Amino acid sequence: MTPELMIRACTFYTGRLLKTHFHTWREIAIPPTNEDELLAEKMEAAIVYANFRLKKHVLHHWHSYVKNRKEQLRDALLRIQKMFHCYKMIVTLNKWRDRARHKFKKREDELMLKHELQLQKFSKLKFKTSSKEEYFFPEQFVSEGFPVGGIPEFDISQLPKRAILQIFSYLSLRDLVICGQVNRSWLLMTQMGSLWNGIDFSAVKNIITDKYIVSILQRWRLNVLRLNFRGCALRLKTLRSVSFCKNLQELNVSDCPTLTDESMRYISESCPGVLYLNLSNTIITNRTMRLLPRYFYNLQNLSLAYCRKFTDKGLQYLNLGNGCHKLIYLDLSGCTQISVQGFRNIANSCSGIMHLTINDMPTLTDNCVKALVDKCHRISSVVLIGAPHISDSAFKALSGCDIKKIRFEGNKRITDACFKLIDKSYPNISHIYMVDCKGITDGSLKSLSPLKHLTVLNLANCVRIGDTGLKQFLDGPASTKIRELNLSNCIHLGDASMAKLSERCYNLNYLNLRNCEHLTDLGVEFIANIFSLVSVDLSGTDISNEGLMTLSRHRKLKELSVSECDKITDFGIQVFCKGSLTLEHLDVSYCPQLSDIIIKALAIYCINLTSLSVAGCPKITDSAMEMLSAKCHYLHILDVSGCILLTDQMLENLEMGCRQLRILKMQYCRLISKEAAIRMSSIVQHQEYSASNPPLWFGYDSEGKSLREKQNTSLKNSELTAKESTYNNEEEAV
């Protein structure tokens, strides 16, 4: 053992011994403390701790109570605020409702007052007209109170020249000549050169003479840019006078029976600047076809519809000389003599064609379309109506062009197969018309849904389309851009797809659901939520007055058709008219349950009406039509066919009040005399008249009695007769 370890061991032992003896000495030397005091100290500490715990517990409960109380007070305050807000809203809504009711009542009173005033003034004017037995000129008619609040005299010549030109540009040739006969000031205004840039002789073809046409063309030869001779039977000398117009750009000689190759030679040699040429339904031959590329080298628009005297060789002439290489639009409707070789000749001569129209051509085949498309890659619009032999192959051949508008009608060979890859073949297509194509089903609508530029879709008479296909179409991006949708006669459509239609088609303007028999008021409720709608056709559907009341809340509709709807009544139409002050077109034809009340509602609320059809409504009378004539001065089209109670008095009222009337249909109106109809035909542009009894499909007889009721009555009478005879036989047997 080393000395260091020895020292450490001794030191540890000494310290241990000292600690042990010191502890023993301390216990002996220091007296022990009082245990009671120690216990008291512990009790005090315990009491302090217990008080602290008690305070903490009480404070916790108090805090929870205060917190809950605050929450209760906060909730109560929120409830009070909500109650106050609701009460304030109720007061505000009640005041708004009262004010709206007052405003509505005031507007209704004003409309009724205005209506009564105008009826009184119309009656006074009728009385003065009948007492004086003379014709009232338009200015005298206005001075008598049409419209309410007289119009002060004003000299139109004081207007700026631009405004005068704009006003007179809306007049026809006949009206322009009449205005020039008013006075010298008006004559000077009608002699402005810009008014004679376009002359339409077709509107006055029955009254104008060849001599007058020649004089007009000679006088305005430097100003004339557009001429319309449609349907005019002119002499060769008159047609030669067209050559005076060296600056002519547009010429329409369609349906001119006297137009020949010789007259076309004079025109073509003198008018090389023609851009638009319409030769449809004329007797031109290959000689004229040879003239077109030689002189009309800037020709862009050419119509040869129903010209059956030229051949495939004539189409080959289009490539001679400068050629018709600038041709953009071509119409070959009804030219059944053209073969596949003829279409090849067109493709070689006019490769820049963009718009192609071929209607009423049963000889058109897929090969014809393929021959044309091989070189005409710029075609963007195709119209093929009445071509039953066109199939999916032609549709596939057109995929090489940038098609934006396509129209097929009455074709049974077009199927869903042509639409399978339409989003890749026609990515920019915007207009699709596939009317009366029986092979199209819901699968086609599903294929159309990815099109991003589609704005117009017409699938009328495609009877195999239903709610499933329409829903699939609406799921795609095409639904958000669609503006016009025609699904008339799609009999499987109903209310199921209308909810998605209102949700997705927020840009829809025109909707046609004619003869969709399963559409009810529930579907109309969804349609009313499409606030962009302007025109709706619900003819032949199962809607009632509730549907019309729902549509009245739309307030922006301008066109409504509800013909052949048996469940609507006068009340529904009346409510709809109250909410549709901007209505311009209404069709309630073949609703025999309607009466004069609807005409009165139209006269009060819809004074901007331009088109009205009440055909097949036998309860309409002269008194209602008098109100309509007194208020609706903008009426252009009127159909009262089958209104058996109307008389000559209606025509007198229309002649006096509706001076803008252009088309009048009054078939099966037996109380209207032939003399009155002939006199009215000289005022309107188009008139249909017959005094025979209404046909059976109108649903009522010559006295306005329903044929169904007659049939039911006859059946009941026959049953009663049969029962009586049976009873008598039994009595005799007894």
From TrEMBL:
User: Any idea where the F-box domain is?
Assistant: 153-199
Query: Predominant location of this chain?
Result: cytoplasm
Return the GO cellular component terms, semicolon-separated: centrosome; SCF ubiquitin ligase complex
Q: Does the keyword Protein biosynthesis apply?
A: no
Task: Output compositional bias ranges, type Polar residues.
Answer: 712-728
- UniProt-annotated location(s): Cytoplasm, Cytoskeleton, Flagellum axoneme; Cytoplasm, Cytoskeleton, Microtubule organizing center, Centrosome
Q: Is the NAD keyword given for this protein?
A: no
Q: Which InterPro entries match?
A: F-box_dom (IPR001810), FBXL15_LRR (IPR057207), Leu-rich_rpt (IPR001611), Leu-rich_rpt_Cys-con_subtyp (IPR006553), LRR_dom_sf (IPR032675)
A Gene Ontology biological process noted in the UniProt record is: SCF-dependent proteasomal ubiquitin-dependent protein catabolic process
CDD domains associated with the record: F-box_FBXL13 (cd22124)
Q: How does it assemble?
A: Component of the nexin-dynein regulatory complex (N-DRC). Directly interacts with SKP1 and CUL1. Interacts with TCTE1/DRC5.
Please state which protein family the record places this protein in. Belongs to the DRC6 family.
- List the protein's name: F-box and leucine-rich repeat protein 13
Q: What is the lineage of its organism?
A: Eukaryota, Metazoa, Chordata, Craniata, Vertebrata
